[in-house]
């Protein structure tokens, strides 16, 4: 059974940050799509030679990947009690 979320519960702030990160990620993807279409249109109407939009789009893609990993908890997961216990164990028993 999960802990109820109340105004005094510190989990509330963590949940709020996670929701905001996910919303920001989806908003960033929309902006990325609009910019991508704009760059491709500029390329197309300027002669459609060498496909130079690949370079800024590549940079945006890297940013989107890391933002998504962070938003969905892959890079920035919550610290658990077992994480704290493991760190204390490492500090108290250093390798020989």
Keywords summarizing the entry:
96 residues; mainly alpha; 3 helices; 68% helix
Mean pLDDT: 85
> Can you give the helix content as a percent range?
55-70%
Low-confidence stretches: none
Question: How much is the radius of gyration in Å?
Answer: 21 Å
Strand content: under 5%
In DSSP terms (H or I, runs of 4 or more residues), the helix count works out at 3
Outline the biggest β-sheet: none
Secondary structure class reads: mainly alpha
**SS elements, strand count:** 0
| Mass-distribution shape | elongated
Order of helices and strands: HHH
Overview of the molecule:
This protein is mainly alpha-helical and 96 residues long. It has one domain. Helices cover 68% and strands 0% of the residues. It is built from 3 helices and no strands. The protein has helices at residues 11-45, 54-71, 81-92. The longest helix is centred in the N-terminal third of the chain and has 35 residues, at 11-45. The chain is elongated.
